[in-house]
Design a protein that fits this description.
This protein is α/β, with parallel strands linked by helices. The protein is about 45% helix and about 20% strand. It contains 11 helices and 9 strands. The chain has a 5-stranded mixed beta sheet with strand order 5-4-3-8-9. Strands 1-2 form a two-stranded antiparallel sheet. Strands 6-7 form a two-stranded antiparallel sheet. α1 packs antiparallel against α5. The longest helix has 16 residues.
């Protein structure tokens, strides 16, 4: 089963568990975000990847330039450990991690969570790849991915127990679009995926194909 097929199956099950009034708010927010043109503003293939230095789960600063000096980088942005779709996507990437490293690339995942929250996620899913914290979403903004939750959806997330104020270091409203980039060693984006629909993610098979094209 592909990752997106798994995500759609989960979505259908999840929708049956969510009250109708909450589903309506989520669907309206999704439609508004899709209509906003945010995906069109996301960094695209052929662009130079904005450089960044972000802390790892242990607080160690990790620079994109340092990673690129070692080979291509697969850079993926996710919303946080509280998002079940993100967890499914990260587990799928872990399953394909060896395929990525066998092609000389580094896999890096970025979210607006504080390092402690990212560390818990890394340990829970036994992730072998680098996980970085973009608190305040400045890197997501540089990649054209950051957006603010509408008031009613933010209230829904709070009601559901997602303490975004804590896990996002005092920035509860700003999240990134789910996005994945294959960046070659000169910093050029050679493949890009960004979607306003958080239930859709880059397929690992497509990432592998993009890495093979760099050879």
């Amino acid at each position: 089963m592909t990752l997106n097929a798994e995500l759609r199956t989960f979505y259908r099950t999840r929708q049956q568990q969510i009250p109708a009034e909450i589903r309506e708010i989520m669907q309206r927010a999704g439609a508004e975000l899709a209509a906003s043109g945010q995906a069109d503003r996301a960094l695209a293939t052929g662009a130079q990847a904005p450089r960044f230095t972000l802390p790892s789960v242990t607080g160690e600063p990790v620079a994109l330039d340092r990673l690129l000096a070692q080979g291509p980088v697969v850079l993926t942005f996710y919303r946080g450990a509280w998002c079940p779709y993100c967890n499914l996507a990260l587990r799928s990437l872990q399953q394909h991690h060896a395929d990525i490293t066998d092609r000389g690339a580094r896999l890096v995942a970025v979210s607006p969570q504080i390092p402690d929250a990212s560390l818990s996620l890394t340990e829970k899913h036994a992730l072998d790849f680098t996980v970085l914290s973009d608190v305040g979403s400045e890197t997501a903004k540089a990649y054209g991915l950051a957006f603010d939750l509408p008031d009613d959806l933010a209230a829904v997330y709070e009601k559901l127990g997602f303490d975004l104020h804590r896990v996002n270091g005092g920035h509860p409203r700003t999240l990134p679009l789910p996005a994945t980039y294959v960046i070659d060693q000169d910093g050029t984006v050679r493949w890009a995926f960004a979607d306003t629909d958080y239930t859709r993610r880059a397929e690992p098979a497509d990432i592998i194909t993009a890495l093979d094209a760099l050879r």
